[in-house]
## 1
Amino acid sequence: MTLAPQPPGRTAQLLALGIALAATFAAAAAGGLASAGAGAFYAQLARPAWAPPGWLFGPVWSVLYPMMAVAAWLAWRAAPGPAVRPALLLYGAQLAANALWSWLFFAWRQGGWALAEVLLLWVLVLATTVAFWRLRRLAGLLLPYLAWAGFAGVLNFALWRANPGLLGGA
């Protein structure tokens, strides 16, 4: 007789949620360091008419980051142990790419490199979304993040092309 695996206990679940939140907000903080002057920099850029106002980015990320952390936690809860490891490694890679984009765009003002990197980010978010979705459908909370990263790529391209002197040329 084989016993079914026991779900993680309450303490393990809370610890996992805490780790997911901490990792996600560490990436947010790393990107935030690079974005300290983002509002003023964004305001001086020539922007397409469809570009969102600068004040919108903070609230959007304030919703997306917790959703991302909960998605990672839900994926872990669906398959704690080695089965979830590849999905969580993808999640960690996209968190690193997420933070790096802010440095490339805002701190180093390298629009072309930021564009290449946001395309990589989008692929990593897509791969993470698929991996999480396979573990638990509700972990598809990454879909709004995937959409936002795609929009960010299009906006990055438009800003880079419209601001060659400020974003490293086009």
## 2
Amino acid sequence: MAAACVFAAPIKKNVVDEVAWIVGDEPIFRSEIEEQYSQLRSEGSSIQGDPYCVIPERLAVEKLFLHQAKVDTIVPPEGNVQNQAEQRLQMFVNNLGSKEKVEEYFNKPFSSLKEQIVDMIRTQYTVEMVKNNLTKGVKGTPNDVRKYYDQLSADSIPYVPLQVEVQIIQINPVIPAQEIEDIKARLREMADRVNKGEASFSTLAIAYSEDGSARQGGELGFAGRSRFVPEFSNVAFNLNDPKKVSRIVETEYGYHIIQLIEKRGDQANFRHILLRPKVSEKDLEQARVRLDSLRKEILADKFTFEEAAQFVSQDKDTKNNKGLMVNPQTGSSRFEMSQLPPEIARRVESMEPGELSDAFVMKDAAMNKDVVVVVKLASRTPGHKATLTDDFHLMKQMYEEYQKDRIVTDWIEKKIKSTYTKIGDGWDGCEFQYKGWKK
């Protein structure tokens, strides 16, 4: 689903372009500042402070980072840049209704807008890569984190909301063989039509693919092997003829056919069509009954929840971890209630530690399919002020972010001192974030 986007009217000012700042030998023009201000407003992004102070300083800092990227030969992965640009453009199309309306809104051809967004994302990516390069050595030891925590004022110690640890056993309903054969027959028919020149792959993808890429004609954007699951990569990266369609590929997401668009070194761009076998209510109910029987055996002490998770669960992310779920946002086993899948959150909200839920159906968001699960509430930690004992992982994150911010700020201010900068008349009456601009 496309992200929500709040639109404001683009800024249209008939101004004679002027040089607002100079950083090194790079000018920053008023038109650049106006353009970025318009872009930020179109995305609904808030600006803390006067935009005619914040934006030029932001552009000036970008130029410092971009210069460093040239020195260090840092180049962002073009496939990732193109993918993010496509997603941004698709968000505009979804919110405004069509490419033509996007062109009318931004008062420029779609191709020009795409080029502008690609440049902007490439710059953002490059800046982040330089920052990561500067801060890659930051790692908080227990002693570092303890010293950091001890010097925090009481008001600076974060409040940690209620958190839970949850274990899960998941089984996937059995899909009838006929349903799978029907899916494969549909994909074979589509592949034959493309191979015979009777239909275009992208048209069929728009009409039939059940993947989010359908809106782009199934196009995935340039990427390396590691972006895809191995079953997909092994077939896709062996394609050489853009006019031909791959054999049917089965992955955890469903069944695919793939078409090569272009290869560039170790990256490639593909189209694919994904069809997912449908699960009937009868299949779901049979799976639920099976898992509920397993739950009763656990409660009867025939085996433990952890043993059942290891030998029965079909959730590859947790079965070898005693069923314990890991929070993808933090890397820890603790979840705030809002971070859990909603179906699980509703169950564990009223459970006590050690208690098991009934078997229930939920949507596996990653796979976009219905599964049946039983969950166990492993622990519940009430909301509290963070402590080193209970929240070391959080405090370690805070310490490392603090150190990274210091390193980046020190680097920027040293660069400002060693770089020629000139702020034009009318642009220098600001309180800037970084020291040293006013000389």
## 3
Amino acid sequence: MKDSYGRTIDYMRISITDRCNLRCCYCMPHGAQKEPAAQILTFEEIQAVAICGARLGIRHIKITGGEPLVRRGCCRLVKMIKEVPGIETVTLTTNGIRLEEELPGLLEAGIDGINISLDTRDRARYHQITGADGLETVESAIQAACRSGIPVKVNAVSIDFDRAGFAGRDSGTEHLVPDWVSVAELARILPVDVRFIEMMPIGYGRQYETINHETLFKEMQKRYPGMEPDGRRHGAGPAVYYQVPGFKGSLGLISAMHGKFCKDCSRIRLTASGFLKTCLCYPDGEDLRAVLRQDQAAKTRENGHWEWKYADCPDAPDLQKRLSEAMEKAVRSKPGAHCFEQPQAMTEQRNMIDIGG
């Protein structure tokens, strides 16, 4: 499937919930609004979109949220999507709080890789950023995931928390290193890809200024003078990777602000409420939930939740045709580039938690 700029679109990020068990300041602080449960797509509806996407050329799917592991049955959904013909990889992004307990189920379902969010390895600061004392839990989950043998990536948002006014450092700690260094050092001892992601001016994130990755790259070169480009394929995303002598893993940069990669963008996003979105910068896209629920195949339970079985749908071919038309229409209208460098030109007003990570 190609967009109007000739880019191949083969990667879909699917948010399965707008709920989370953390309250990260730049994503979902206390008071953030949530969609009514009945407006969230069922697993069967998500599978129907994945089936249609695969027929159109989607090959890689990332399960996101919110926090996907707070939704009951997430492992079952992974298995459902893994069984879709044409889908080559299914990976998951998580904050890691529930990962260790859910890891056996994810492995059994066939998960192909796990991304774990971690912005700092300072316990007090982690608590201040996320609203929870969960650092040890997350670091234990990272180690467990590495032991399992599946590919593991650690994602850190590039914010200078010192300049942003975050105190929260562990008392008595001497010779404090920058947060990015403490996270990067995970790649020295573990076979993980540690990626730094520039903060984009979306939702609550507009309150925080990103660390310029041109500056960060220079700092990385100073600290790790033997760092060299890593040309190996690490996944379907836009990160640029580097190898450091003596490290078991790699370091990566995802530089949406200062390393614009729109010309190679291959992704679309499905929100938890079923809106197919083609660019983070703009609100444009197609409402797939309306397509899925417009006919009599969609019924409501007594509690108001949607019950929909694609396999039982009598007009499945017609539904797939309508879904395909809607998805292709969205892809054709995908913009050529974002305008994060000109926040005043952005038209997307939703928060990242509403869009999906």
